[in-house]
Amino acid sequence: MNARADLNTAKPVNDTTARASETTLLDPRFYTTDFDELDRIDVTPVRAEWDKLIAQMKSDPNKSHFKKTEDWDTPDWDNMDPELKKELVDFLVSSLTAEFSGCVLYKEMKRRGNNPDICELFNYMARDEARHAGFINDALREAGIAVNLGFLTKAKKYTYFRPKFIYYATYLSEKIGYARYITIYRHLEANPQYMIHPIFKWFRQWCNDEFSHGEAFALLMKTDPKLTQSFVNKLWIRFFLVAVFSVMCVRDHARPAFHDALGIDIDWYDREVLRKTSEISRQVFPIEIDLDNPRWERGLVKLRAAMGDMAEAKSRGGLGGWIGKTAAGARAGLAFAGLYLIPVKKNAVPENPRLEPAY
Question: Environment class of residue 115 by beta-carbon count within 10 Å: exposed (0-12), middle (13-18) or buried (19+)?
């Protein structure tokens, strides 16, 4: 990926760049953190597994993967169903923003840090995320709507998170990214007639990058038992589990034409992705959401309805829109609280947290 090239060749305010620059409850965010605290991490308690993971990343198994081959058949953007095109572009822009967010954060840690273990890790992860974002942007460039990544770096609002919150949020983001990509890939592997865009053919190896990045954050959390074992931090883990899982479900239901074109039932897909992610997260989190509790599905329905009403009221504008947005926001808050208060399931965390992608 070449951010400088994007700055020179793409219009800074094209629609996709403007969309990627937005920061709402459902949009991927750019993060900043206490880099000095990250620099003080001591990986000695997980040294053996750390060295294995770093060696794997250094070997760069996907070095040649993110290149177009004869399997890349450019879609007919001009004659694509307008609603499908809109939602496909939204999926690609959202995915690009999430990938580029990681690249920006990891590069900043590499630039600011002095800890050789942490700097090496973040250097490899920034490399991977840059490839991912660049590959998605190439797909958008074919349609003449590439995101100006240089502009995005400057225009996107940054959210400050303490390092432990970065661990929780990014660990889940990477693992749920793996689950999403491999679920789509396996579905299209069995049903190739639904291959609406060639980028999905690259998802199998791609998702292994997401998996290994999640492994890195699992090891970072294992360096300090308090991060996952203290009472307060368990409450925070619970918060991030509910937030990441519920936002994914709300966002997916906003793209019905996209999932219909893929031949995917959205409810099945979300349940499958959350099941995989929940199983994987047992490697480091001592609690997990009870996805089988009927209150979970009911709460998601309420949250989706409230978020939909918020979006509609926002677009309506005026005093009526403000009142509607406020009322819907209150309903969304209550729905989220209901999801958070569902009793969680306890989990015995294994001594060795390392896993291999198995789906």
Answer: middle
| 237 within 8 A of 287, measured Cβ to Cβ | yes
Reduced to 3 states (helix: H, G, I; strand: E, B; else coil), residue 54 is helix
User: Residue 301 to residues 141, 213, 246, 305: CA-CA distances in angstroms?
Assistant: 36, 31, 10, 6
- Rg (C-alpha) for the chain, rounded Å, is 20
Q: What is the mean pLDDT of the chain?
A: 91
Cα–Cα distance for residue pair 172/236, rounded to 1 Å = 13
Of 26-35, 165-174, 226-235, the least confident: 26-35
Give the span between the Cα atoms of 73 and 93, in whole angstroms: 20
**Residue 4's pLDDT is what?**
38
Q: Give the contacts of 126 (CB within 8 A, at least 6 positions apart).
A: 102, 103, 106, 107, 110
- Tokens coding 34: 């206490």
What value does the mean pLDDT take over residues 333-350? 96
What integer pLDDT is reported at residue 29 of this predicted model? 80
For residue 276, give the amino acid letter: K
Amino acid identity of residue 133, one-letter, is A
pTM for the structure as a whole: 0.91
Residue at token pair 């100006």: 148
* Segments making up each domain of the chain, as ranges: 3-220
Longest dimension (CA), the chain: 60
Residue written as token pair 């949020």: 169
Burial class (CB in 10 A: 0-12, 13-18, 19+), 17: buried
53, 223 contact by CB (below 8 A)? no
- List CB contacts of 116: < 8 A, sequence separation 6 or more: none
302 Cβ neighbours under 8 A, 6+ residues apart: 331, 334, 335, 338
237: Cβ contacts below 8 Å, ≥ 6 apart: 168, 228, 285, 286, 287
- The helix (H) or strand (E) run that includes residue 59 is helix 47-59
What is the DSSP secondary structure assignment for residue 293, as one 8-state letter? S
Here the tokens at position 57 are 């990343």
Q: Is the pLDDT of residue 9 over 60?
A: no
